[in-house]
Design goal:
The structure is a homodimer.
Chain A (H helix, E strand, L loop, with lengths): L8 H11 L6 E5 L12 E2 L9 E2 L3 E4 L13 E8 L14 E5 L11 E4 L3 E5 L2 E4 L9 E2 L10 E3 L7 H9 L4 E5 L3 E7 L3 E2 L10 E2 L2 H11 L3 E8 L3 H14 L2 E5 L10 H7 L3 E6 L3 E2 L5 E5 L2 E6 L3 H18 L10 E5 L3 E2 L5 E11 L2 E6 L7 H6 L2 E5 L5 E2 L4 E6 L1
Parallel strand pairs in A: 5-6, 13-16, 13-17, 14-15, 17-21, 19-24, 22-25
Antiparallel strand pairs in A: 1-12, 2-11, 3-10, 4-6, 4-7, 5-9, 8-9, 18-20, 20-21, 22-28, 23-27, 24-25, 24-26, 26-28
Helix pairs in contact in A: 3-6, 4-5
Chain lengths: 407, 407
């Protein structure tokens, strides 16, 4: 009987990166449409921010040196020259002994080098100001160009745009950016027992779950899912759907039929799709062992297990990074630290992914394994993340600190 | 001079929850459109999953008792009765001493109570099977109704739909669900110095950042942002935009002009919008102190600080939970644990939010404060999350373990 030629997760990644390269298409979107999109180019600022030295508080602009030694009993007194108006060039040019009222964000007038906060002053009369605490030169100011220097790189190709990044782009006057189009991902489920969810299964049939789990996972990772439906367990049926999906998509996911049972035709189909063909068949991973990948004329095809839990684990490790980054780089969110509520054994020689629920108890975070067979979708619904038992480890002990990858 | 009547964050939340209630509108969406949406009703299963007892492996169905004691040298032998076909009711009814081939997901035939894995068998001839390891009754099976019981509640009102939840809904034949419509959030920036990002600022002017930061934050929290542009520092101008926004939105955010400086008209406008009016003015929070909230005839209006960093902190604490949950419930993602790279002092009596970058060093995670004035948008772009110094604490010491809230 043909068995798996099993590779580790890092080896599987290495083989994929060697044989396949992400090709991004690009579109331009406005700032209000750009949230969550990935930049298709480095972004540089053509100006400095702020464009002028500004106050960060409501207060009075003055010469800092003239406040040195000021106290409540011995305030420093200034002649008040009026108010700096917002959004216009100040008409006030301060001489020694003079101060001008300025609001948060207002421009520092010529002659001043600091702003004293309103709370540290007293207005003696409309023309006389008493300052009761000293300020240092530069205090309560943001200097011209301090936030963003002219010509500096502010964001990098591939960066996922967050709300603050949109603010930064607005600040430098960039109102549209080139972003990567979502990778198109074809999704196929295989199995004679499957029916569409809207159909009533006959006795012996079940509804297709994986197409919907995968559709959600692809969307969440920034891809565009295209559902191609259910193929019967028949090489011609699988081949027909796979070729249709390949002609329209950058990447194709076929779930079910990736094992070595008599009805597992996916491997046979993947061999025939194009060159170089099968990269690996089997990953030392639990759940998720019967996973295969092939490259057919520049397009990547995965054969995934039939169990939805296995599908989620394999997706997270091998497919999500490709959709978001085009490869297996950095940028995995750091794990949440928690302690195991119980011990778990694991066979050495495979990487095991355990579903856990997080529990807060006495101010500490605990990872509580959600036990249940990997075929049960309900266990994934109850879990909040996974804990990895590494390839070489034989288990985890109760109370041991672990990293939980949230999903 | 009128100063703030400062409340703590929990007190601000209490006042908002007492005076305002989220009103959700509802729409029905199909599974492929439902990712990330919040359920508007509890979901119950009208069926059991799986609908029949299934094999979780590729192997042979048989009576477990007849394998007891089987070893490689002394296998248990069975008469092979053919294969269970997928998706149809088995025609095979096993008698003692008989076995039938079954694939992963296939139905257990009558007469069998377990499945032995392919790997633990040898085919002696097309009609004879040797089993070399015993199985227990029920082994390698998922029982009828084991995943989801008929009539059980599978998801709860308000739950945010993840990929595995879509799979669960597909499994029980629910192909469309009622979800909450995003809350409409009006966004207004105020300030004479502000220009739209597409305009070239004159000397003394700056571009509006907050509208775009808020637009992104609202989207990220499941709301629908509506931008109403920039109001000049003039009560009539602010009132006109605020009334327009209130007539179209569930919630209105006005940034800038929430302090007590001479040009801070937001509080004046918020007093005049409707009853009960101002809830609080000032929160013991750094950054974010000059925050105010008002309720005007059932609609909630926030006056936010002008600094984008303050805007983000206040949004996260007071506004995001309302858009996603309608109140200040649970469901904040647990913090990532990290150690401080340096000590930080904080004034007691206010909750301080410090922006940090995460650094991995010797397998440990460190939180490294991103220093910089709160007016700098670039500090938020460099940061990956925030660390909270609680109201009563006076700072954090180097090496101290803290929780980092990622954004």
């Amino acid at each position: 009987m043909e068995l798996f030629n099993v590779v580790t997760v890092p080896e599987a990644r290495r083989q994929i990166e060697q044989s396949w390269e992400a090709k991004w298409q690009i579109e331009r979107v406005s700032l209000t449409e750009a949230l969550g999109r990935r930049l298709a180019a480095d972004v540089f600022s053509r100006e400095e921010v702020p464009g002028f030295t500004r106050s960060t508080v409501d207060g009075f602009a003055l010469r800092a040196e003239e406040t040195f030694g000021a106290t409540e009993t011995l305030p420093a007194c200034f002649e008040l020259m009026g108010e700096i108006l917002m959004g216009v060039v100040p008409e006030i040019d301060l001489l020694p002994g003079q101060a001008a009222r300025v609001s948060t964000g207002g421009m520092l007038p010529p002659g001043a080098n600091a702003v004293v906060m309103l709370e540290h002053t007293e207005l003696l009369d409309p023309k006389s100001l008493a300052v009761i605490r000293p300020v240092a030169p530069g205090e309560n100011l943001v200097f011209q160009g301090e936030d963003i220097a002219c010509g500096s790189q502010v964001l990098t190709t591939g960066h996922r745009l967050r709300p603050q990044d949109l603010g930064l782009l607005a600040a430098v006057g960039i109102t549209a950016v080139p972003v990567r189009l979502p990778m198109k991902v074809g999704i196929i489920s295989t199995g004679n027992e499957l029916v569409m969810p809207e159909n009533e299964p006959l006795f012996g049939q079940v509804r297709d779950i994986n197409s919907y789990v995968l559709s959600g996972l692809v969307q969440e990772s920034g891809g565009l899912p295209l559902l191609f439906g259910i193929a019967r367990d028949d090489p011609d049926a699988i081949l027909a759907l796979a070729e249709k999906a390949l002609s329209l998509c950058d990447l194709v996911l076929i779930s079910g039929g990736s094992s070595v049972g008599s009805r597992d035709y996916t491997v046979q189909v993947l061999k025939s799709l194009g060159t170089p063909g099968i990269l690996f068949h089997g990953v030392s991973l639990k759940p998720g062992k019967p996973t295969l990948a092939a490259v057919a004329d520049g397009r990547l095809v995965f054969g995934l297990p039939g169990h939805p839990v296995s599908v989620m684990v394999v997706f997270d490790l091998l497919i999500k990074p490709l959709l978001s980054l085009g490869g297996y780089g950095q940028e995995r969110h750091p794990a949440v630290r928690a302690k195991m509520t119980r011990s778990l054994a694991s066979g050495a020689g495979r990487e095991e992914h355990v579903r856990v629920r997080l529990i807060e108890r006495d101010g500490e975070l605990w990872a509580d394994p959600v036990l249940g067979k990997s075929g049960l979708i309900s266990t994934m619904v109850k879990a909040q993340g996974t804990v990895v038992i590494p390839l070489e480890a034989e288990g985890l002990s109760m109370g041991q600190e672990v990293g939980v990858h949230l999903f």
